[in-house]
Amino acid sequence: VCLMTGASGDIGQAFLETLSSLGLRYVVAVGRRENEPNWSALIQERKANGLRLHYCSCDVSNAEDVAKQLK
């Protein structure tokens, strides 16, 4: 299982694409966006083929937000 912060941006999605191509199967993606982002076509394809991706809205620079997510 991988916990990835900043996953909803372009760099985060590119990193997620790379990790999933190396066999990553379980991801908890954390980002500041309130709603789950529009994932790239490649990530959507990998989700259809078994990538388990859970998105959480959280500002990791805010201790209270992080504490809420860990409960």
Total beta strands: 3
Give the neighbour order of strands across the main sheet: 1-2-3
Radius of gyration: 12 Å
User: How much of the sequence is in beta strands?
Assistant: 15-25%
Largest sheet: 3 strands, parallel
Q: Low-confidence segments, ≥5 residues, pLDDT <50?
A: none
Number of DSSP helical runs: 3
How far apart the termini lie comes to 18 Å
The helix fraction, in percent, is 25-40%
Mean pLDDT: 93
Order of helices and strands: EHEHEH
Give the CA-based shape.
globular
Q: Characterize the quaternary organization of these chains.
A: single chain
Structural class computed from helices and strand pairing: alpha/beta
Quick take:
With 71 residues, the chain is of the alpha/beta class. It has helices at 10-21, 41-48, 63-70; strands at residues 2-5, 26-31, 52-57. The longest helix is centred in the first third of the chain and has 12 residues, at 10-21.
Question: What this model shows, in words?
Answer:
The chain has 71 residues and is α/β, with parallel strands linked by helices. It contains three helices and three strands. The protein has helices at residues 10-21, 41-48, 63-70, and strands spanning 2-5, 26-31, 52-57. The chain has a three-stranded parallel beta sheet, with no helix packed on it. The protein is globular, with a radius of gyration of 12 Å.
Topology:
Elements (H helix, E strand, L loop, with lengths): L1 E4 L4 H12 L4 E6 L9 H8 L3 E6 L5 H8 L1
Parallel strand pairs: 1-2, 2-3
List keywords for this structure.
alpha/beta; 71 residues; 3-stranded parallel β-sheet
